[in-house]
Design a protein that fits this description.
single chain; mainly alpha; 3 helices; about 0% strand; elongated
Length: about 60
């Protein structure tokens, strides 16, 4: 489950936060689960971004 969510939402901060916070509400009460999930989502986004930078993968950015 972790790898699936990480691969599908890791490059987008908003999707990562929403996916992890919704998953967090399944395991904890709604308020605490969403906070814990959002923290995990932000951490996952930063981890994917750091790994992409280390491997030389550039972000797509805004198309002009």
């Amino acid at each position: 489950m972790f790898n699936l969510i990480s691969k599908t939402t890791g490059n987008n901060l908003l999707l990562s936060t929403l996916a992890w916070s919704s998953l967090g509400t399944l395991f904890f009460n709604p308020a605490m689960g969403s906070v814990i999930g959002a923290a995990i989502g932000v951490g996952n986004y930063l981890r994917v971004r750091r790994n992409n930078k280390k491997n030389g993968i550039k972000p797509e950015g805004v198309i002009k």
